Structure formats: structure tokens, C-alpha cells
# Entry
Amino acid sequence: MGGTKKVTAAKQEKNQGVKDAKDSKKGRKDKGEGGPRKAEITVMVNEKEAIKIIQNSKVVTCHDLARQTGVKISAANAFLIESTKKGLVKRVGGYSGHRIYQAVSS
# Structure
């Protein structure tokens, strides 16, 4: 059945030379350089900030908390589990790792 032809070694070298010439004319950089930088992600959750976010929301998930505090999801999840043990928040729903938490009313 069909498919593409096998390109000879001479043809590959010729094509490679043409690509290099085009790249140098246009002033392209290597793929690893430049471009927009991703946001810095911290590992520790600022407890005061996190509690404030939880209390101001009706419900919160670890994904919401991670996005709003700028930490990794695993750090936010660990914080929510510890807060549940301390009695600061309670689990009100969710399933299969997608838990929903709510602040405990004082």
C-alpha cells in the first residue's frame, strides 16, 4: 500500500542545508531560548491567606485553593487534609480525590 518514499542520504543533506539557511536568514533562535516564562509556584501554603480564602468562599477544592494561593495542588491538598484534622474545615462532598471543603462556622 502506499506510504512515503524513502529519502536518500544526499537528499536529506540537501534539505537540511536549505532549512539551516532559512533559519539563519530569519534570525530564529533555538527552541529552548526566549519565550514567556511560567509563573513561579511555591511549595508552602500561607496559612492565614488560605484560611481567609476558605472563609470567603462558599466551598473550596484543592484545585481552587492551589490556584488562588499560587502553590502546587499537592501542597493545597495536604493543607486541606491537615485543616480537616485540626477542625478548621470540614469535607462536605466530592468523590475519588475531588473533595469539596467548607469552613467550619464558629
